[in-house]
Amino acid sequence: MKKLVAIAALASLPLLSGTPDAKRDPTAIGGRKVSSGVNFYSLEKELALGKQLAEEVRKQARLVEDPLVAEYVNRLGQNLARNSDVTFPVTFNLIESEEIGAFTLPGGFIYVNTATLKLSDNESELASVIAHELGHAAARHATRQASTQQVLDIAGIPAMIFGGIGGYALRQLGTPLAFFHFSRDFETEADFLGLQYLWKAGYDPESSVNMFERVEAMERRRPGAVSQLFRTHPMTSDRIAKTQRDIGQILPNRPEYVINTSDYEEIRTRLLDLLEVQKAKDATAPQPPTLRRPNELEFDDRPTPRQ
């Protein structure tokens, strides 16, 4: 019984992240801790795990490697990271995908789909997506959630957690391209933190609301256009209302905000051109052969000629 009580107490810790007052103070960004909660992974192991998973993403996904596009996305991300609570190096990559989405691996490996950049209307809206993912990274949601699941699923703290990042850790976190389905509490926290990072970097925080509404409208217009990750935390009216309320309650007014830049417009146009070229190449590329297992029977439904 005592063991079950202890497990329940540990499981509740991720909801108690950092000092509440500091987390609501955007002027304290960079000098506060937002990753408090049960976590069986040291930062060193989280970074190593993220690097391992990032290699899998590189093998399974098509990253946009155009130097101008890649440099812009990284520059935008690094500027936001400098105005966040992240305490370790982060990386930013663009994945060629027609699904709207973005995701964060352990250790700050952040990925944005090309469809997300295409959907955004300006740099501030794109930055709002990246800022949300930085919220996940800063709060170390991936390993905190994995740690909570280990407590709940195994009813104890397995010794193997503290020794290496092998197959067990990978199974707990799931495959890279299945993404991480964070809890509602973690998604709400990432919204809250990301909104502050967006403001701190000088962008219009209302862009978060605008991007939410764009994603919501696209999902209504084209069901399935939004990745599974985004669908686990739908753009509900409650979520939008909470974001608007947070803007009014915790963010000091600025005389002006960055909405858009010429760099964004140039990169977006360049990306659209690159995607069209790639689409044409894919359409003319030879299709891979259909493979059959050695013991698989092959049925021929063509009529048998009369003897």
Description:
With 307 residues, this protein is mostly helical. The chain has one domain (2-283). The protein contains 13 helices and three strands; from the N terminus they run ααααβββααααααααα. It has a three-stranded mixed beta sheet with strand order 1-3-2. A hairpin with a 3-residue loop joins β2 and β3 (109-113).
The percentage of residues in β strands lies in: under 5%
User: What coarse outline follows from CA principal-axis ratios?
Assistant: globular
Number of domains: 1
Number of helices: 13
User: Whole-number radius of gyration?
Assistant: 22 Å
Helical content band: 40-55%
Distance between the termini: 79 Å
Name the structural class. Answer: mainly alpha
Order of strands in the sheet with the most strands? 1-3-2
Q: How many beta-strand runs?
A: 3
- Overall pLDDT confidence: 81
Low-confidence stretches: 1-18, 152-179, 296-303
Report on the biggest sheet: 3 strands, mixed
The SSE string, one letter per element, is HHHHEEEHHHHHHHHH
